Amino acid sequence: MVSSYPLPEGFSDFDVFSLGSCLLVEGLLGFFLNGLTIVSFLKVRELRTPSNFLVFSLAMADIGISMNATIAAFSSFLRYWPYGSDGCQTHGFQGFLTALASIHFLAAIAWDRYHQYCTRTKLQWSSAICLVAFVWLFTAFWSAMPLIGWGEYDYEPLRTCCTLDITKGDRNYVSYLIPMSIFNMGIQVFVVMSSYQSISQKFKKTGNPRFNPSTPLKAMLGCWGPYGILAYYAAVENANLVSPKLRMIAPILAKTSPTINPFLYALGNENYRGGIWQFVTGEKIDVPQIENKSK
Ligand SMILES: CC1=C(/C=C/C(C)=C/C=C/C(C)=C/C=O)C(C)(C)CCC1
Questions:
Q1: 16-53 pLDDT per residue, tens
Q2: Most exposed residue of 31, 91, 92, 215, measured as fewest CB within 10 angstroms of its CB?
Q3: Which residues line ligand 1 (CB under 6 A)?
């Protein structure tokens, strides 16, 4: 690899190589697992239901995060960012857009599951399509703002990846952070928490748990919580006082979400798993359906 470029401040040769390798593994695993989820949906007719369209949309968002991670891995191995400052802005926008969309789809799936199991109503295509279109437009708005000066995209401490710059901690940053995190994380955490709480009560009543209702919230908070903590810490304290290595933990954890989500929502979903199996082996199996009313 090219070693003529100086190391970013606070990182040893070994750190840069290890972080680059982490990013590469995350990128490739996410690419493979979400690719499988996407292609199965497109190829297996029985999978193409409105509820599974939400899982498909989650995989589309997650494959975007995986692409972002793979580019970051590549430039980590190069030890410099080869795409210039326009490339940095584009990378920041693309990463933010897909990451925020992924968080929204986790909430959309939770809301849909609440209706499936608790109110026994089935999602309709028109509602699913409107919901997905709304999520992409809404997240495009929040990710475009730093491009026009509300918030700012800049290099991460490793200097091989671009995302929201938390280091300034000025009024512009704080005025963006607060509404952005309420509309793109706060509400979603509330929806996920309350939906799975109701589902958990329902499962206790019926004595037939179809999945572990506490896992989705734990996974969501585990992946995105550290980012939120770091971003809010940067609003009150100087983020440069946190060691660059420690600051890299949040984006690395966030980028594990495209690997975890397919296990929870596609392979871990009795409905979707059968379709993936059918796509991979060609063997047709009955996809279990829940008897529901229409919504
Ligand atoms: C800032 C921030 C958030 C969004 C973080 C995102 C979307 C990060 C994307 C990072 C990427 C793609 C990094 C690439 O290296 C949350 C979680 C909504 C909560 C509050 C603070």
A1: 889 999 999 999 999 999 999 999 999 999 999 999 99
A2: 215
A3: 68, 72, 95-96, 99-100, 156, 161, 163-164, 181, 184-185, 224, 227-228, 231, 251, 254
pLDDT of residue 294: 47
Q: For residue 251, give the amino acid letter.
A: P
150 CA → ligand 1 middle, Å: 15
Confidence of residue 4 (pLDDT cuts 50, 70, 90): low
Whether pTM exceeds 0.90: yes
Q: Closest Cα to atom 21, ligand 1: which residue?
A: 228
Distance 277 CA to ligand 1 centre (A): 33
Q: Which domains does the chain have, with CATH numbers?
A: 13-279 (1.20.1070.10)
Backbone angles phi, psi at 283, to 5 degrees: -85, 125
* Neighbour tally for 84: CB within 10 Å: 9
In whole numbers, what is the pLDDT of the chain averaged over residues? 91
Going by CA atoms, what residue is nearest to atom 2 of ligand 1? Answer: 228
User: Model confidence over 97-117: pLDDT tens digits?
Assistant: 999 999 999 999 999 999 999
Distance in Å, CA 92 to ligand 1 centroid: 10
Nearest CA to ligand 1 atom 19: 228
C-alpha span between 92 and 161 (Å, rounded): 8
Q: What is the ipTM of this complex?
A: 0.94
Please identify which residue in the block is written with the tokens 């089935």: 122
Name residue 293's beta-bridge partners: 121
Name, in order, each residue with C-beta under 8 angstroms of 54's C-beta and a sequence gap of 6 or more: 105, 108, 109, 112, 123, 128, 131, 132
